[in-house]
Amino acid sequence: MIRSTSCKVIAAVACRGGDEQMLARTLARLDRCRHVDRIVVLHAPSAAPQVVESDKVKLFAAAGELDDAVRPARLAARRWSSTGWRGGIAGASVWDEPLAAGATVQALDAMGASAALIVGEDWPLVDPALCDAVLERHLQQPDVLKLVFTQAAPGLCGIAVGRELLAELRDKQAMIGSLLMYNPRVPQGDPIGKDPCVQIEPAVRDFRGRLIADSPRWRRLIETIDPAEAHELDAAAIVERLAPHVTDVHDQSPAQVTVELNTTRQVEGPIVPQHHAAIVRPDMTVEQARELFEQLAESPDTAVTLGGLGDPLCHPQWFDIVSAAHDAGLAGLHIETDLIVNTEVLEQLVDSHIDVISVRLNADSAPIYQKLMGADQFDTVLRNIEWLLNHRRNGLPWIVPRMIKTADNVHELESFFDRWMYFCGHAVIESPSTGCGAMPDLSVLPLAPPRRYACRQLAHRMSVHSNGAVATCDQHWASAPDGDLRERWQSLRSLYDQHARGRFEAYAPCAGCSQWYRP
Question: What pLDDT, in 10s, does the model give residues 193-240?
Fold first, then answer.
């Protein structure tokens, strides 16, 4: 179906001071899109990029700020899911990273256009054919298909969004991803099986890399292909070339690190590892933590979780350690806690530059909480979650209640999930761990797939115990060897290589592990 000639489409590329070479490559790829009438480079009034305008490429200065106050929250929601097109907190998608809804609506109105293709400034491998496919689908029924996308890996395809929907996102300061996730208030089928999703080749859909040049590790992957050659390749050819190298991007450093500050918790029920095993390690010192964070921050996209077997908020100097993490410049900071704290600690949490607070709730009623956690603190934790939701600023920190699913709480799973999806925008249900046999298996049913593959945890994640030792993974609760951080990471990379060759017995705990399938 041919679109009406009066229906103009722009490609909206919000420029926030990224690499101009990558911007030029992105614009050159978009210039080949048949359904894009204008490529509009959005920018703040005082920060125009070095772009040569043409009949098709135009600079557009936003009236006022380019971004709204909740953009940091949108970015934080993506930091632990950056290699997927969706899956961030509250459904955050890859298109929420470059989104500048207000400025895009301004550009649409100024140019008499009705829809925008949202693309990042550092997407040098964006596929013109895929972009044309989503635009063509949108233009067939623009009043019905107000949003059209593909499941391509991040950086390969933009999303088509109509002006009306963009204005709604602007007014509500909402995320595109929130429209593509399960919402208990408005239940609907997954959109990936419906008209808004353009079907693509499985290899392009299943590629586990991030083709966005916003960090050294992913830029190295992108530059595996010569720019002149890459310009002529489509998404399928790009993925075929890069797939053998995608795990190599983590050779120098992990993308995600869990740092255990202590092994102390205020609960001791049967769902808590310390109920079953004597796991006691010295607290990490502020100086140890500062040195660790400075090493990790050498990779600018490293995201850190303060968690492990203890509750970080039980550490007497947790606030100083969180401040050290912030000062080091880590890409993201997440804390796992039982949240049995007083108001003074809650106030510190709001002021502490933490991106995400995961609350180990594990129940949707006081009796089940008491049974599993061994403490009469359910109402206290609920009040603390409510306090944080009411006092956080511009959506930060995100609050994520978590439940480990067991036979004792499985009947509360649905009410737990729906409740916290409504109040927090996100909730996590996870399977129990045994810590390589350190505690009984509390699983309701085995969840591991029938055919084993290499553990993706080993590919890009690291766990550091409170004594500074680097564990094999987050299932390794026992004592771990000391050693230089980089040397230990290299040894873990060697273990991953053994997994990739099918040698799962190379390290004894891996042979009996049931958690290898997690993303």
Answer: 999 999 999 999 999 999 999 999 999 999 999 999 999 999 999 999
Q: What is the pLDDT of residue 351?
A: 96
What pLDDT shows up at residue 3?
41
Residues with Cβ within 8 Å of 457's Cβ and at least 6 positions away in sequence, in order, are 473, 474, 515, 516, 518
Which residues lie closer than 8 Å to 383 by C-beta, 6 or more apart?
none
Tokens 């470059």 identify what position? 98
Using omega within 30 degrees of 0 as the cis cutoff, is the peptide bond preceding 49 cis? no
> How would DSSP label each residue in 175-238?
-GGGGSS--TTS----GGGSTTB----HHHHH-------SSHHHHHHHTTS-HHHHTT--HHHH
Cα separation, 299 vs 288, in Å, equals: 18
**What is the mean pLDDT of the segment spanning 361-382?**
99
pLDDT at residue 508, rounded to an integer: 82
Distance CA 59, CA 43 (A): 8
Is a pLDDT exceeding 90 seen at residue 506? no
Q: Please list, residue by residue across 446-460, b when 16 or more beta carbons sit within 10 angstroms of its beta carbon and e when fewer do.
A: eeeeeeeebbbbbbb
Angle between helices 286-296 and 318-328 (to 10 degrees): 20
Side chain identity at 145, as an amino acid letter?
L
Mean of the per-residue pLDDT values for the chain?
Answer: 94
Distance CA 99, CA 226 (A): 28
Q: Write the CB contacts of 257 (distance below 8 Å, at least 6 apart in sequence).
A: 296, 302, 303, 304, 305, 461, 462, 463, 464
User: Please, are residues 322 and 352 in contact by the beta-carbon 8 Å criterion?
Assistant: yes
Are the beta carbons of 110 and 11 closer than 8 angstroms?
no
Strand partners, 119: 13
CA distance linking residue 402 with residue 429, whole number of Å? 6
The DSSP bridge partners found for residue 57 are 39
As a whole number of angstroms, the distance between CA 258 and CA 305 comes to 5
In the numeric block, which tokens belong to residue 233?
């390749």
Q: What tokens were used for 339?
A: 């949240």
Q: Which domains does the chain have, with CATH numbers?
A: 8-208 (3.90.550), 251-511 (3.20.20.70)
Whether residue 447 contacts residue 513, with contact meaning beta carbons closer than 8 Å, is answered with no
DSSP strand pairing (332-337 vs 356-360): parallel
Both structure tokens of 55: 């009949």
The pLDDT value recorded for residue 486 is: 85
pLDDT at 446: 84
CA distances 475 to 281, 459, 464, 470, Å, are 16, 14, 12, 12
